[in-house]
Amino acid sequence: MNNLKSFDDFLNESVQDDIYVITYENPTFISSVSNSEYDNGGQFDWYDIIEPLIEDFNNTKLEQYLDDKLSQKVISIRAEDKISPKETFLIKVKVKGEPSKDDIYDIKNYISGQCSDGWGEGFEQQDTNGYSVSTWDMNGPHIEFIKTEKED
Q1: Residue 2 lies in a domain
Q2: What's the pLDDT tens digit per position in 19-42?
Q3: Number of folded domains in the chain?
Q4: pLDDT digit string (tens) for 113-135?
Q5: Is 32 exposed, middle or buried (0-12, 13-18, 19+ CB in 10 A)?
């Protein structure tokens, strides 16, 4: 049995005053690792893929690599364990004060860069229960902004 949150529970979490949360949705692209002991004809359990991805993403603590401007605003960047309707994972960014449109854009670009060239490139090279998991799409922008909310 997994401990993943439902999509609605994830979006309805709340924390303290004056903290805003920007939520982004990021896709995953999964392919079998050839000659893997786990290969079962392309069938896999989504939780066997997403749990190691979330753990690795969160252990990296991407906020430590932010530039000076964003590091003054961002409290944390974490992937959330939730049940995904379309093989994506959600990234919650907690920020001090209400984020501007520029903040949202800058954070989105930072996360996109980490998923393509930074953290994601390293994670993609690992064998994740017999699969290679990519967190970016070479065909263009892929990360979607879901919402910004003030958490009470």
Answers
A1: no
A2: 888 887 777 777 766 545 555 555
A3: 1
A4: 898 888 888 888 888 877 788 88
A5: middle
Whether this prediction's pTM lies above 0.70 is answered by yes
Q: Is residue 55 part of a domain?
A: yes
Residue 84: which domain range?
7-151
Quote the CA–CA distance of 25 and 102 in Å, as a whole number.
Answer: 18
Tell me if residue 136 falls in helix, strand or coil: coil
**Cα 137 to chain center, whole Å?**
14
Distance of CA 90 to the CA centre of its chain: 5
Tell me the C-alpha distance between 148 and 134, whole Å: 26
Q: How long, in residues, is the chain?
A: 152
